[in-house]
Amino acid sequence: MEPIRWGVLSTAGIGIKAMLPALRVAAGCDLRAIASRQLDRAEGVARNFGIERSYGSYDELLANPEIDAVYNPLPNHLHVPVTLQALQAGKHVLCEKPLAMTQAEARQVAKAASAANRQVAEAFMVCHHPQWVRARELLREGRIGKPLAIQVLFSYSNTDPDNVRNQADIGGGGLYDIGCYAVRAGRWLFDSEPEAVCAVMDRDPEFGTDRLTTGAIRFPNGSHLGFTVATQSALTQQMTILGAEGYMLFDAPFNCPSDHAARLIIDEGSDLFGKGRQIEVLPPADQYRLQVEEFSRAIVSGETPLNGPEDTIRNASAIEALTRASVSERWEAIML
After folding, report:
1. Last residue of a domain, which of 125, 153, 174?
2. Cα–Cα distance measured from residue 171 to residue 166, given in angstroms and rounded to the nearest whole number
3. What is the dihedral of CA 106, 107, 112, 115, to 10 degrees?
4. What is the per-residue pLDDT across 61-113, written as a single tens digit (0 to 9) for each?
5. Does some domain include residue 267?
6. Which residues 6+ apart lie within 8 Å of 300 measured at CB?
7. pTM reported for the whole predicted model
8. 209: helix, coil or strand?
9. By CB neighbour count within 10 A (0-12 exposed, 13-18 middle, 19+ buried), where does 209 fall?
10. What is the residue range of 181's domain?
11. How crowded is residue 271: how many other Cβ atoms within 10 Å of its Cβ?
């Protein structure tokens, strides 16, 4: 089988830190090109990573007939238009989250992907990590009984006004940047779709972005997801799944380092001091590498990739409802 030939759109930090190293070593992947609006930046990154071709515009890379798939890590407001452009150019697209900021945008991408007969996926790399895969297996086996609630706390501190995460007009803010992970966690672990949401937000008076968002999401059969995300707070990542007969704790649930053997803690809840606790140690894994390998296999097989268009529509619908709820100050149904 010939490897999938990849191009990367922009020299964004997530690409340099995580995706370019993953693409260099991923099975079935051939990293061929990188583009930036500044040619010297593209050339510099290409030299550092041994990439064959560099371009001073995204259009040039998309026009290259040798590129099969592209990774789009551009700022949020460019996810949809550049993904649509790539699809029109005949490329498969793995796009950073949130791929779309509204349900309408997500449906537009899904329609374009179908028309072009190309694959599209939203880059929720966490779904590929062994601790997430194992947790869902344990839930399906009934290890902690019926899953009742998930609690997520995800925060960091960033007050740089020039950072895209702090620019409201291009899709900045905590809900879009990291709240989307909480939504995906609920959908993945409950293995069902949310029904309604409520939310409160504290917005930065200068940036206009939500710097602290707390949400509640109601799932079928009485299950709940509660989350708090923050962009100007202490660094932390926590996730707990509460079941009728025990609970699970995740180890660095969202940005688990590739050299770290993650611990999935399963507690039967017999006391408050962990006497009924068991720990499963998962092997170190590069979730970015696993992600691009799975997407490349989907391109070859024609099967819908993990986090494909339908998942994007559903995640975007929930985020859109959370935004409405923060304004209405009441429960909002998820409209599909």
Report:
1. 125
2. 9
3. 150
4. 999 999 999 999 999 999 999 999 999 999 999 999 999 999 999 999 999 99
5. yes
6. 1, 4, 28
7. 0.96
8. coil
9. buried
10. 126-288+317-333
11. 10
